[in-house]
Amino acid sequence: MKKGKNISKMIAAILIGSLLMPSTITYASGDSDDLFSSEENTAEARCKVIHINKDAIANGTNKKNEQKAEETGLAKRIKAPSKEKVVINENVMKRKADIQKEIAEIRKARRRYKESKKLKETVEAFYQKIGTTEEEVAAALSAKKKTGKELDATVEDKNKKELLLALSKEIEDSYVAEVANTYTFDLELHAKKIVENVELLDLKSYLDKYRKASKNDTRSIVKLQKEANSLHELRKFDPKNLLIKSHVTKDEMQKILSGTELSDCAAYFVECEETYGVNAIFIAGIAIHESGWGTSRRAREDHNLTGYGVTSDEAKGINENTRRSGLLRTAKCLKESYLTKGSKFYHGTSVSAINVKYCVGDTWASSVTKAGYELIERIGDLRGYRKE
């Protein structure tokens, strides 16, 4: 009986031991070398598993290389126009010129104000030296022209002359110096030879003009400069770099899409540029090509204007509830996945570079670019615009 119990214990131990032994699956995962201690795990077996893993890696690498080669080949086959098209808004140019002129006038007016304010302060200081009231100042600056022989001037008269000559230099007025040298301010003096009709002068009336400082200009240079910076006279479409903004306005986009099935999307194309920095003319060019100017079934029923997620005629596509959200989603995808260096579909910033992953064909870039050119041409035909 005791011997039977011992045999049962031995069997149990063997079973537990076999469960704890490492399996070949664990070995294939590439864990530590201790897993090769089993007799079944021979060098040949190890080699076989390692080669299987290497082959799997090699196959994955080969697929990536093949895909890269295919994309490189497609990129070489893609032929599309690459010339930048520019239109000039002459009204914006004129407004910017007017703003700069207005800023110059404000600065000139402010210089004059500062100068007149300084002159006013200088004359006021001079008045304080010769009198305490307006009447005293007027009396002190009453003068008569020297006539006949040189008059015998008093000390007070000489002091006034020195003050006037100093004032003439400060306010840069030569007439004040002339008065100081040819008039006397001592009216009690009598010429040795009396001359009739002596010319009298009220110098205070002349100097009072400097006391009228012009009003400071309250217009805001900062506000005007901000407006000028927000104005862009150029409307651009550069197929080589889609991150260069078009600066097309909603009103302009509305005008050039008027009469088409895309006219209701004019503001959305501009919003795509403002939100994600992708050229609005390019986004509109995709919509024109992919939806036939907004007339396709996908455009009408699925609100899909850009062929987003449409990999074949049968594909449902990645659709949104509105055209606006569909366009914004496309712009977001283009910015984050196609136009950002290091992103998964990045091949550059050109229309041709987008073509490599956005469309399997090699004519897509050319069609979209030509649609963009047509839109730029339409802007150039608007009144007040000039084609460069």
Automatic annotation (TrEMBL):
Stored Pfam families: Glucosaminidase
- UniProtKB keywords: Coiled coil, Signal
What is the protein's given name?
Glucosaminidase domain-containing protein
Tell me which stretches of the chain form a coiled coil: 89-119
**Gene3D superfamilies per record:** 1.10.530.10
Which ranges carry the Mannosyl-glycoprotein endo-beta-N-acetylglucosamidase-like domain? 267-323
Q: Which residues form the signal peptide?
A: 1-28
User: Source organism's superkingdom?
Assistant: Bacteria
